[in-house]
């Protein structure tokens, strides 16, 4: 029976209980990720500039605002459907941090993307950009670097760390003792491709490979640990696990394709070389688009 608490009714842990595949939530989750996150910079480029002046929020900004509201709601609904009692306080703190980080990113990302219309080249560092390095006084350059820090580092950290933490917390409850339940329905198989492709974009554009790979290793270790107890991932757990596996393959293909790109190599030095799709766009595709009158 449910036991009341300060946070509402708490489900009793039941190792024999499993959940059906949450087609509605996973579909809405994947759809809004593609439209509101991946689609926001595209909308900003495609829609006429006269509709969204440079000193006003762009269409992408409104997409981002919607994402910041819908995504935490869907994450909470996922947690609610877990057959296992999950740490409520950790979930709430993660959601609050997620919303704050995504909101910080909204402001920084909005300005950085608007700078593209003024000639900002995303494949270059802030100080190497022609429109930035000639600013006077030079302290203005420090301000743009601060903006970049809020966008690419602080915003991403406060956004993505709780995001992957919530997914892992949810995954920890997606196990069942019945081997026959550890299968993905056709709907999950069809949805795993778009989901994996979005995670590829999230990891590469967000530059969060270390966070992603640690989450993936933690999920794999949890699967091995639960198997010793006779438990296997249910359909929702398999959907998340396979999405992460395919994402890793897509990242490997992306890195292999751009392995010898000297310009991107300069932008992303170090052992972990994973170029951002937007850096690739401003380096190779934006000039092509302008030459063709696109």
TrEMBL record:
Residue runs in coiled coils = none
* BP GO terms, sorted: lysosome organization
Q: Which UniProt keywords apply?
A: Membrane, Transmembrane, Transmembrane helix
GO CC terms on record?
Answer: endoplasmic reticulum; membrane
**Membrane-spanning regions, if any?**
62-79, 91-108, 159-179, 186-202, 208-225, 237-259
UniProt-listed InterPro entries: CLN6
Name of a matching Pfam family: CLN6
UniProt protein name:
CLN6 protein
What organism is listed for this UniProt entry?
Answer: Polioptila caerulea (Blue-grey gnatcatcher)
Q: What is the lineage of its organism?
A: Eukaryota, Metazoa, Chordata, Craniata, Vertebrata
- Gene field: Cln6
